[in-house]
Design goal:
The complex is a heterodimer of chains A (108) and B (118).
Chain A: E1 4-7, E2 10-13, E3 19-25, E4 34-39, E5 46-50, E6 54-55, E7 63-68, E8 71-76, E9 86-91, E10 98-99, E11 103-107
Parallel strand pairs in A: 2-11
Antiparallel strand pairs in A: 1-3, 3-8, 4-5, 4-9, 5-6, 7-8, 9-10, 9-11
Chain B: E1 3-7, E2 10-12, E3 18-25, E4 34-39, E5 45-51, E6 58-60, E7 68-73, E8 78-83, E9 92-99, E10 105-108, E11 112-116
Classes of the chains: A mainly beta (108), B mainly beta (118).
């Protein structure tokens, strides 16, 4: 199975700063079938990005995704207070599908 | 509005069985693949199983293959997960999830808690 490793485990930033989250795959993710989700406490995950770089409906343009092959990045250009949460990358190109272990974005 | 409502969770002894149900509404259920994803409280997400739009193709995580069975009834807009030979490590919140036509999960239910304990 494809193992996704996210870094850092925890990211401490202030509102207005730029956040860069990394997701590295143990083998190439086919056709850029890579998605990102945001999860807040007590809530189900919310889709942010799919196809590595396409924003889901309603996601603000301060969120962007990039990457291909084995290295992917989620960038939040200017953090808003509501952005602090746990973020997961997910590959859906090769079965069994897998998730990264998550990056917690916390307020500094 | 897409709605996914899970039911059937509860407390079960190791070695026991449970059947989860997901009632779907707000979209054409038979057009979409569906998945189950689980999460141990306070931990990360784990994809468990997926099924194609017509039930003709299924897949499983290695951790549940041979013990869990995913199925669906498009006439009833329902998704199922039959869980047998349950283990303590299967304890988690189980989410029902809809797959977009391009295969990524775009909608999630609120989850059904399964606790395996003696």
């Amino acid at each position: 199975e494809i193992v996704l490793t996210q870094s850092p485990g925890t990211l401490s930033l202030s509102p207005g700063e730029r956040a860069t989250l990394s997701c590295r795959a143990s083998q190439s993710v086919s056709s850029r079938f890579l998605a990102w989700y945001q999860q807040k406490p007590g809530q189900a995950p919310r889709l942010l990005m799919y196809g590595a770089s396409t924003r889901a409906t309603g996601i603000p343009d301060r969120f962007s995704g990039s990457g291909s092959g084995t290295d992917f990045t989620l960038t939040i250009s200017r953090l808003e207070p509501e952005d602090f949460a746990v973020f997961y990358c997910h590959q859906y190109g090769t079965s069994p599908y897998t998730f990264g272990q998550g990056t917690k974005l916390e307020i500094k | 509005e897409v709605q996914l409502v899970e039911s059937g969770g509860g407390v079960v002894r190791p070695g026991g069985s449970l059947r989860l149900t997901c009632a779907a509404s707000g979209f054409v259920f038979g057009d979409h693949g569906m998945s189950w994803v689980r999460q141990v409280p306070g931990k990360g997400l784990e994809w468990v199983s997926g099924i194609s739009w017509n039930g003709g193709s299924t897949s499983y995580a290695d951790s549940v293959r041979g013990r869990f069975t995913i199925s669906r009834d498009n006439s009833d807009n329902s998704l199922y997960l039959q869980m047998n030979s349950l283990r303590a490590e299967d304890t988690a919140l189980y989410y029902c999830a809809r797959e977009d036509l391009n295969y990524f999960v775009d909608y999630w239910g609120q989850g059904s808690l399964v606790t395996v304990s003696s």
